[in-house]
Structures are given as structure tokens and as C-alpha cells.
Write a structure and sequence with these properties.
The protein is elongated and about 185 Å long. It contains eleven helices and four strands; from the N terminus they run ββββααααααααααα. The protein is mainly alpha-helical.
Length: 409
């Protein structure tokens, strides 16, 4: 019989292993010596030790799942429990028990971590849904559309939740995207309709503008072109390609008309410049009549100058007020001279002036007498009051006398 600290072989070739629960039969050995039998089962023990060591390292250093680790532990425990090896099997059981505890702890850690990740993923998805629902109301079509596409990519990168929660959030998320897409589609459909209406309206404006391009009604047509431009702006924009083409035609028609008008106006401006020189010469001639010395001759001379004035055509608009103002000033001087002459030679007016002067002179003389009487009586207050009244009457008398001089004295 042969033995070692952990096992023995009896006379029949039966191999035993020693455990805390007593000896357990390992197997039967008939092919060699007892030492060879023990050596064989000890190697099997060493193999189990190696496998346990490898599993311990995998559990500690890799992301081996708890399920796979438990399966591997159960497989090794079965080998230990079947007692087909000679060695410290109790020590192996303790290592496997410690490994189970490690796996259980890892399982719990992963469970907590997964719960945390799930909670974070749920919060992240709820935030995505809230943002998507807000974007669904936006009219910033391009920016909101790009942002929604980015949210989808973010969603895809997040872990899945439980089916119910994930499906509910995805339904809200998808509904927000669909609502935005529907609103955007309706907006651009309406915009396309508006642009088509604008195109039709601008087609009519272009047709009219082109029909007016050959007009010689410079004032009326220019005004109509201004109206057409106002209508053009109010019509809104057509599709870009149509807008550019219509605008080129519209501007082209205007350019033809205004180029022709410009040539005509250039000729007219040259002619009006010559007219201005002639009228300035006439204004200078008329101004020599002032001051008026001989009214009848001055009036006749001005009438002749005015006839020549009327025979001259238009002058530039910006120069017209000044040159016409010079003639008007001469005409006013003649009118004032006529009025002065009329007052001087009108008997009725002279009589009225003489009567008014006499009345004022009598009033002044009377007031002077009253002032002298008041002073003599010592009534200075009355005298001062009468003196102030005298000042006013004297001023009126002076004006009347001056007017009377205009009648020849």
C-alpha cells in the first residue's frame, strides 16, 4: 500500500483522497504501481488548480459575464466534488466559494451600474424627447431639421430601456419629428404656392413693362414704371430661377425707356440752358427800371420785356424760381409805384386824408389845452394821463401828415 498527505492506494488498487469529511474513493488503479496511481491523480488535481487560477484571473481582469463565470465555477466544482483528483480538495472548494462571492459581488455591481446607466439613459432620452417636442413647434426649418437629425443619432447611441418605457419615449420622439416634418412640408407647399402666384403677377408686370419700353410719354410712362416697381415689390418673390429671369426682363424694359428718355432730356436740358441765359439777360434789363422814375414809360418797357420773356421756352426746373423771382420783384415795384400814383391823384382819397388830419390836429390841440389847465390847477396825475393820450394822438397825426404829403402836400 502507498500513501501521501492527501491520498493513498490500498492493496486492491483503490485510490482514496483525504477530505474534511473523511476519505473519498478517487478511483481504481490496476495498470502500474501505487506511486504512479497517486502521481496520476495528483496531476489531475494540478490541472484543476490551473483551471481555477485561470478562471480567477478572467473574473478579475476581463468582462466575463456572471452567467458564464457561474457556469465555469459549477463545472470546476463538479470536478472537485467527483473526487477524481488527489490533493487539497477542501482548499479548492474554498477558492471556488470565494470566486462565487466575487462573481456575486461583480453581478451586484453590474446590476447597480446597469440600473444607473439605465436611469441616465432614460433621463437622456426624456431630454431628447422634450427638445424634439419643442423643436416640433419651431419655424426655423433648416436649423430645427438639422437638430432633429442630430437628436436621432444621439438616440441611437443610447442604451435601450425596458420595452415599455423605450417604446413610449420613442413614440413621443417619433411623433414630434413627424409633426415638424408635416408642418415644414405644409409651409413649403404654401411657400411654393405663393411663389407661383408671385411669378404669375410678375409675368403680367413684365409684359406691361415691355409694352411701355417704346413709349415717348416721358412723364406718364415714368410714373407708371414707378407704380410697376411698387407692385413688383408687393408681389413677393417667385422661385429663384424665375425671379432672376423676370427681373432681368423687367429691368431691361425700363432701361430701354429711360435710356431713350435720357437722350431726349439731354437735348432738352441743353436747350433750356440757353433759355435760362436769355431770361437772365431780360431779368437784368427789367431790374434797370427800378427805382421807377417815369411810371408810364417803365410800365411800357416792362410789358415789352415780358413779351420777349414769354416767347422764350422753358428753363431748368431748379433755376426757375430764382430767375422768375427777379422778374416778379420788378413787377411788384411797378405795382407799388402805380398804387402810390393813384393815391396821390385821387381827390376823394385826398379829401379823406385832409379830413382825418384836421380831426387829429384838433384833438391834439384840445389835449394840450387840457394838460395846461390840469397843470395850472395842480392836478398832475390828470395832466400825466392826458400827456400819455397826447403821445398816441400825436403819433397818429404824424402818420396822417406823412400820408398827406404823398398827395402833394
Amino acid at each position: 500500500m502507498s500513501s501521501d498527505p492527501w491520498g493513498r492506494v490500498d492493496e486492491t488498487g483503490t485510490v482514496y483522497v483525504r477530505t474534511a469529511d473523511g476519505e473519498q474513493v478517487v478511483g481504481s488503479w490496476q495498470a502500474g504501481s501505487p506511486e504512479e496511481a497517486l502521481a496520476y491523480f495528483e496531476r489531475k488535481y494540478d490541472g484543476i488548480v490551473v483551471e481555477i487560477g485561470l478562471l480567477e484571473r478572467r473574473v478579475k481582469t476581463t468582462d466575463l459575464s456572471a452567467k458564464d463565470a457561474t457556469t465555469a465555477i459549477d463545472h470546476l466544482r463538479q470536478q472537485v466534488d467527483e473526487h477524481h483528483a488527489v490533493g487539497d480538495l477542501d482548499a479548492l472548494r474554498k477558492r471556488l466559494d470565494a470566486l462565487v462571492a466575487t462573481v456575486d459581488a461583480r453581478r451586484e455591481e453590474r446590476k447597480v451600474l446597469k440600473a444607473k446607466q439605465t436611469d441616465e439613459a432614460k433621463q437622456a432620452k426624456e431630454a431628447l424627447v422634450a427638445e424634439a417636442e419643442e423643436l416640433a413647434k419651431s419655424e426655423q426649418w433648416r436649423a430645427a431639421g438639422e437638430r432633429l437629425r442630430a437628436l436621432v443619432d444621439t438616440w441611437k447611441g443610447l442604451p435601450r430601456l425596458d420595452r415599455k418605457s423605450d417604446d413610449e419615449l420613442w413614440h413621443r420622439f417619433s411623433h414630434a419629428r413627424s409633426a415638424f416634418s408635416k408642418r415644414r412640408k405644409a409651409h413649403f407647399a404654401a411657400l411654393d404656392a405663393q411663389r407661383e402666384e408671385a411669378r404669375k403677377a410678375k409675368e403680367k408686370l413684365v409684359t406691361e413693362a415691355e409694352s411701355l419700353s417704346g413709349s415717348t410719354d416721358w412723364v406718364g410712362t415714368a410714373a407708371r414704371y414707378r407704380d410697376l416697381m411698387t407692385e413688383w415689390k408687393a408681389a413677393g418673390r417667385a422661385q429663384r430661377e424665375a425671379e432672376d429671369d423676370l427681373w432681368n426682363r423687367f429691368r431691361g424694359a425700363q432701361d430701354v425707356f429711360f435710356a431713350a428718355r435720357g437722350e431726349v432730356f439731354a437735348e432738352r436740358d441743353a436747350e433750356q440752358g440757353e433759355n435760362l441765359k436769355l431770361k437772365e439777360e431780360l431779368a437784368t434789363e427789367a431790374e434797370k427800371l427800378v427805382p421807377v422814375k417815369e411810371l408810364k414809360a417803365a410800365r411800357a418797357a416792362f410789358r415789352g420785356i415780358n413779351e420777349r420773356w414769354e416767347a422764350i421756352g422753358h428753363v431748368p426746373r431748379d433755376a426757375r424760381p430764382k430767375v422768375e423771382g427777379r422778374m416778379q420783384a420788378v413787377e411788384r415795384a411797378l405795382q407799388e409805384a402805380e398804387e402810390s400814383e393813384w393815391r396821390r391823384t385821387n381827390p376823394e382819397a385826398r379829401a379823406r386824408a385832409e379830413g382825418l388830419t384836421g380831426q387829429l390836429q384838433a384833438a391834439v390841440d384840445k389835449l394840450r389845452g387840457q394838460i395846461d389847465t390840469a397843470r395850472a390847477q395842480g392836478n398832475n396825475a390828470r395832466a400825466d394821463k392826458l400827456a400819455r393820450e397826447l403821445e398816441g394822438r400825436q403819433a397818429l397825426l404824424d402818420q396822417a401828415l406823412k400820408g398827406l404829403e404823398e398827395f402833394g402836400g
